[in-house]
Amino acid sequence: MALTLTACAGNEAPRPAFDVAPYVHKGHVVDCEAFKAQADAQAVLRADPLDPNALDRDGDGIACPNLPEPTDKRPVRRDFMTDVDGAPIAEPLKPPPSPSSSPPSP
User: pLDDT for 72-93, tens place per residue?
Assistant: First the structure.
């Protein structure tokens, strides 16, 4: 099964679908320089917002902003943090209680 996303803007004819399958759920396999257009990199980020390829280094939801047109500047929602390799950083919502903060026993 191949994943493809199409992009179009305004009244223009839709672009041919960009096949994101070779780039998603495989870990770090590509960098921004591998894409001909920003919209293609954005399609990969949209398909895998964990971003193991580090296409969105500043975390603003826009992949490879310096690539040429066509572009897709609609941000991808990324409600988690990643380290420099794009791996998710999972932190507990609140730290476990420390022994000193336990209520005194009767």
Answer: 999 998 766 555 555 555 544 4
